[in-house]
Specification:
There is one protein chain. The chain is of the alpha+beta class. The chain contains 23 helices and eleven strands. The chain is elongated and about 95 Å long. It starts with a helix and ends with a helix.
Length: about 675
């Protein structure tokens, strides 16, 4: 016999009227936003890893001299504050041919220069004295394909050299502590290294950090979507239950309706992600924009996200109707307050002690361990929040002196989970704000602004090079003071290597011109600048700044959206209560103030707590990274919390017209 569940569900959904359709559209829209954001986060994390993989060939792994077929020397030079990765390659004589590097049609011969499309454009745009003269003169440049690049905007050059050329000789391998991961020389037989470039190696870790902190607000949004229309479903399904429908049929009808709405919304979000891939690829991160294909998550992830969002909305809707299935009369009585147990407090304290034991001993943790601890904390606070709301409601209820405060306190203690769902988005966003505002890294390294330094083979060469440097700079039209730098000056731009240092007068164009003019004097090494010596720290700082800004904005937007949806759902859930209060003579303004206090009271306590814990987590991360804290983040933190609170209140007030509408005819809705 055919089950009547699906036909009856479809009939009731069609006959639910305009209000029912509006609820379904809002729920589908929330599901679409959640699906879209999840796919974008997954795409960014996977894409960041793929970008790093496409830079590993530039960091050579030394092989035995008997197996080597070529010499590779990779270094970095800067133009317009942007890094240019230069890979010098020389085929060893009487050895088998070295395979082509990724993105090249063949192994470069002596005198050949291959450049990335972005670098080719810059070479034609800038005067030769600022960039092109740093490379060998060629009639035309070869092109590096996407297989050898992390980003379409990346500046990369591959130069073919002779085995005895200074750029690949042992002299060029002289290194100081600034050269770590920036300048390397090795004998190679191929390009199978697994170490990513310093400019992409930290990308995936910082993205995953943002994803972990942003997942929970997105989950809250999807859960809020499942609650929309819950009151309408409760009344409709309670009547069916009393008419003889079984609990299984009631839950099946709810699951079918919620799954259909969630699936439509999740699919819409997936389609939006697919359609917007070219636009998403234009958003810069790290070394630049993206290749579109590296942001494509594939059908597997696409299906997983759609199913996950659909399941989340379905579970959220079904769990709201447990009382209808077990006791339909209880829906009308509403006499069973949803209390919380103290076991939540015990588990939360246990998690905090676990986190403290893992991070409080001063040991450095790996990035994955820190991410796991953050995820553990998120889950624990999600479980702990309703217990705090319940206790706040009881405390405020005993001391309430105004009717709106008393009403708010009763709602907090009668249904703490519903109150927690309203504020949970911003509470968890407060943790994000505290974490990223304080985790702004500060650098205490030496400053060498305006300096250009040339490395020489020894101190005697430095004394001869200083005259040549002055002549070259004068010929290039650069005003600079050139001095010899001793090997004992470890905190100089040369970091303890012999050479000369030019203090350049003028802007960035003069510095770029000076670098180009001094390149022939550098014993095979490009001249060093401030950007070179601060590259590792600046790279991590820049990535964290980008991820923190994006995460803060998205988390507060998602939190405000979920708060607005939850507030609207709560109004619909409680319209019978509001109707009875209106019949008893309660002014609409009192009900509205009670709703606001119901949000402000737990928000003030919980958001403050999570913000402080986020700041603590940031300090632990900085300790693990061995970096300092930028104190200016405190002002950003205050601003974020203030803006977030205002956005939350605006979202709550957005449901005020709905409150007025559901209480317009209390005599009809209170029964």
């Amino acid at each position: 016999m055919r089950s009547p569940v699906l036909p009856l569900t479809w009939h009731l959904a069609r006959s639910s009227g305009r209000r029912g359709l509006q609820s379904q559209l809002l729920a589908a829209g929330a599901a679409a936003v959640g699906s879209f954001l999840l796919l974008v986060m997954i795409a960014t994390a996977l894409g960041a890893g793929a970008r790093a993989d496409h830079t590993t060939w530039r960091t050579p792994d030394d092989v035995a001299a008997t197996k080597a077929t070529a010499v590779q020397a990779t270094t970095i030079t800067y133009v317009r504050h942007e890094p240019v990765t230069v890979v010098n390659l020389a085929q060893l004589p009487d050895r088998k041919q070295t395979p082509a590097p990724p993105g090249l049609s063949g192994f470069p011969k002596q005198g050949q220069v291959y450049v990335s499309p972005a670098l080719a454009g810059l070479l034609h745009k800038l005067p030769a004295g600022q960039l092109a003269d740093r490379f060998p003169k060629v009639t035309s440049y070869g092109t590096i394909g996407a297989a050898g690049l992390a980003s379409p905007d990346e500046l990369v050059a591959v130069v073919g050299r002779a085995p005895g050329d200074a750029a690949v000789s042992k002299t060029a391998g002289n290194q100081n502590y600034y050269d770590a991961d920036l300048t390397e020389r090795a004998l190679v037989s191929g390009f199978s290294s697994t170490r990513a470039s310093v400019f992409t190696g930290a990308d995936q870790g910082t993205v995953l950090l943002g994803v972990v902190l942003l997942v929970m607000p997105v989950v809250v949004l999807a859960s809020a979507a499942g609650r929309l229309g819950a009151a309408r479903r409760e009344q409709r399904l309670a009547a069916l239950r009393l008419a003889g429908a079984t609990p299984r049929q009631i839950l099946a009808m709810t699951a079918a309706e919620a799954a259909a709405v969630g699936a439509v919304g999740a699919l819409a979000g997936a389609l939006a992600y697919t359609a917007l891939l070219p636009a998403l690829a234009e958003l810069p991160y790290g070394v630049g924009s993206w290749y579109t294909g590296r942001l494509w998550v594939g059908p597997g992830w696409l299906a997983t996200v759609v199913l996950a969002v659909t399941a989340l909305i379905t579970v959220s809707a079904v769990t709201m109707l447990r009382q209808v299935a077990t006791s339909p009369l209880g829906v009308a009585q509403q006499a069973d307050p949803r209390r919380t147990r103290a076991i939540r407090l015990v588990l939360f304290v246990a998690v905090l002690l676990c986190i403290w034991a893992s991070t409080g001993d001063g040991s450095q943790l790996r990035a994955r361990q820190l991410l796991a601890l953050l995820a553990l904390f998120y889950g624990a606070f999600w479980m702990f929040g309703p217990w705090v709301v319940d206790r706040l409601g009881r405390i405020v209820g005993r001391r309430a002196k105004r009717p709106d405060t008393l009403l708010a306190a009763r709602r907090l203690s009668d249904d703490p989970r519903a109150a927690w769902r309203t504020v949970s988005g911003l509470v968890l966003a407060g943790f994000v704000a505290g974490f990223f505002s304080i985790s702004s890294l500060g650098s205490e390294g030496p400053s060498h602004q305006g300096q250009v330094a040339v490395i020489t083979a020894n101190a005697a060469d430095a004394r001869h090079t200083v005259t040549e440097a002055r002549t070259a700079l004068h010929r290039a039209g650069v005003t600079a003071t050139v001095t010899v730098t001793s090997e004992d000056e470890y905190f100089s731009l040369l970091g303890g290597l012999p050479g000369v240092t030019a203090q350049v007068s003028g802007g960035q164009e003069s510095i770029d011109t000076a670098v180009t003019a001094l390149t022939p004097l550098g014993s095979g090494r490009y001249p060093l600048t401030q950007e070179y010596v601060s590259a590792p720290d600046d790279t991590v700082t820049a990535r964290l700044a980008t991820v923190s800004t994006a995460t803060l904005v998205l988390s507060f937007l998602v939190a405000a959206a979920s708060a607005g949806l939850t507030a609207a759902a709560n109004v619909l859930d409680r319209r019978r209560v509001y109707g009875l209060l209106r019949l008893a003579g309660t002014p609409l303004e009192v009900l509205d103030r009670a709703r606001t206090r119901e949000t402000v009271i737990p928000l003030a306590v919980l958001a403050g707590g999570t913000t402080a814990m986020g700041a603590f987590g940031a300090m632990q991360l900085n300790k693990a990274a061995g970096t300092t804290i930028n104190a200016s983040g405190a002002g950003q933190l205050v601003l974020c919390v203030a803006v977030g609170a205002l956005a939350m209140l605006a979202a709550i007030n957005g449901s005020r017209p709905l409150l007025r509408k559901v209480t317009e005819s209390p005599a009809q809705t209170a029964d």
